[in-house]
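Figure-free illustration: sequence to structure, shown twice.
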Amino acid sequence: MTTIPYPTAAELCKRICLENKPKWFTFNGMRCLGCATFSGEVEKRCFNNAPGCTGCSQVNQRFQETQSPTPH
């Protein structure tokens, strides 16, 4: 996995949290809600836990989608 630059990971995390907020009762929504609630600060969220700031699974997936070449 490629290391995700911190500003990119933070922005992806923010977007994913906003998307999941109205769907807090889903698995991913609960993960975001719990991460945001218990971390308290963006710098302590799950996407920072792995060495090299590789991201939580949701951030990793979104990052990979943005890096994939789009079919013509």
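We now fold a second protein in the same way, so the two outputs can be compared directly.
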Amino acid sequence: MLTLEASAIANEAQERGLHILEKEMNAVLLYLSNVGTQAALIAGFVFICFTEEVPIVGDDVHPVVSLIGVGFATMSFAAMIYTIVCSTVSSSLGPILALKGHDTSAMRRAGANTASE
């Protein structure tokens, strides 16, 4: 009887631990999604620098200042696109790798280890 109660308590503790890990993973996924959304929004604003008439490029602006402005806009746009790609890949592949690992049979091995205990 005591063995069954100890086993039930251990299973409940393991289940609660997995629930906490699930909440943590969902929080990280939400964070990455928000970062990607904000980066996409800012990248859209930076893209306007290339498509619309902006004060950094014009006849009355010195060419060096104009080149520096366009260079910064290009670097900002590239950084935002990189952030969008990283957050998308992390939020889509993160849960899969957390569940499977690099090896597709990692879940089977974990299930076999749990069943043998």
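Summary for the second example: The chain has three helices and no strands.
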